[in-house]
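In this section we walk through a basic example: taking a raw amino acid sequence and producing a predicted 3D structure, encoded as discrete structure tokens. The instruction is simple. Fold the sequence below.
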Amino acid sequence: MTDVVVLSFAIALIRRGKISSFPKFYFIWTLIVSVALQFCSQLIPSWSGFFVCLSYLFVLIFFISNRQHEDMRIFMIGWLLNALVIWANGGKMPVDLEQASKLSYPIDALINGTDFKHIALTAETKLSFLADIIFKPFIIPRVISIGDIFIMLGTFLLVQRLLNKPISLIRLREGKNYAVKHSK
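The resulting token sequence is shown next.
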């Protein structure tokens, strides 16, 4: 996601964006709890599925609390798609090994089942069409899901909003009138 964030900021700056006011977000503490739970999933691998599922619930609280922002609703779609496949597969995101083999880094933990957040996609995988099955070769190569695409779009839109250059997919327009009217 780092590449998406950096690219989003670069585009916003090219569009002459600047931070003039930060939108009001509620329940930010839930994101901190979510990150802590993801960290716990690494420390206690036997409970990783539980911790990952629980962390997704805390993110849901954040999204619901901030659903008035259009970009949060885009994020929420991606979150939901990823959460469904993760919850259906015991708290781990299935990854297509054929696509993962295109990556330049080792995938041994994925193959031998010791990855704390991912499992290999098999014939038994539930909701496999929502799994990490799309190879993204540019900037930072990785295997992504349909949900990740929505999350990346939400990230892009959020950064545009933060730099006071929001883009509305609903109205397909931009401008300060929209930013002032909808960022409160």
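Looking at the output, two observations stand out. Strands lie at 93-95, 118-120, 134-136, 142-144, 167-168, 173-174. The first strand starts at residue 93 and ends at 95. In the next section we compare this with other chains.
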